[in-house]
Amino acid sequence: MIYSATGNQAVTNSKTPLILGSTTAIRPRILAYDVSTDGTPTSDQGVKWQIQRATALGTSTAYTPTPTDPSDPASVFTAGSNCTVEPTYTAAQILYERATNPRATWQWAAYDQRSEVIMPATAAAGVGWQVQAVGGSAGNIWVNVTVLE
Amino acid sequence: MPVHVVRNPGKTKGYFEEQGPEGTVRGETFTCPHCNDVRDINRTRQVHMCEHCWAPICEKPACRNCVPFEKKLERMEKAAAVAASRRSLFKAAGIE
């Protein structure tokens, strides 16, 4: 079943707008995501973000992932927006990092199963999007993700 | 495990698109089958191919050993399950 989840947060250095959490029952797979900001940028300096693996999910506002098929049950994986306590990220486990223009929208999608980003079937294991440098961005950073479980 | 270096890995299994003020940039990505990291094709130019599974792999030396990421996931899950059962055992014994 496929779900979408969204997280947002005022663009702040070393803060996580979206964290996904796995459980012992499933191996969620990230199919696609996009990253964008909604404020008027103060300069053309890039906003840098990283996708990292986490072993503890920190504290965030729970987001209920939306199934793309309305008849699907609620998701088993969890999603959290606007982390107030940062997840515990695994050192040297950066899945992807990028600096993008704050006016830009960044999208990524996997074409096939071998390219999907997989989370282990372990409680509190997750994947998070963390801002590394604010650059010229203002307002909020938004992360939308499509997950298969 | 020896690796081949190629310009076009053939198996480009993902794509990115950046819609910015200067226009739209598109590119292809691959996901390393040994560590699950995502890499751009156009940025790295030359891509290592695993001679065992013949898939594009990232530049990390550890990924030259052909251990599928699913295998590593199984190990992670097993280790987490062992740690969890130890914790519950300690708790039942009143140690924790």
Can you walk me through this structure?
The complex is a heterodimer of chains A (about 150) and B (about 100). Chain A is mainly β and about 150 residues long. In chain A, about 0% of the residues lie in helices and about 55% in strands. Chain A has strands at about 1-10, 20, 30-35, 45-55, 60-65, 65, 80-85, 90-100, 105-110, 115-120, 125-135, 140-149. In chain A, strands 1, 3, 6, 9, 10 and 12 form a six-stranded antiparallel sheet that branches. A six-stranded antiparallel sheet of chain A has the order 5-7-2-11-4-8, with no helix packed on it. Helices cover about 30% and strands about 30% of the residues of chain B. Chain B has a three-stranded antiparallel sheet with strand order 1-5-6, with no helix packed on it. In chain B, strand 2 (about 15-20) and strand 3 (about 25-30) form a beta hairpin. The radius of gyration of chain B is 20 Å and the shape is elongated. The interface of A and B includes residues 44, 51, 106, 111 and 122 of A. Strand 9 of chain A pairs antiparallel with strand 2 (about 15-20) of chain B, so a sheet runs across the interface.
What is the string of SSEs of chain A from the N terminus onward?
A: EEEEEEEEEEEE
Overall pLDDT of chain B, averaged? Answer: 83
The number of strands of chain A is: 12
The average pLDDT value of chain A, as a whole number, equals 94
Helix-strand makeup class of chain A: mainly beta
Distance between the termini of chain A: 6 Å
| Biggest interface, CB < 8 A | A-B, 29 and 28 residues
Q: How many helices of chain B does DSSP assign? A: 2
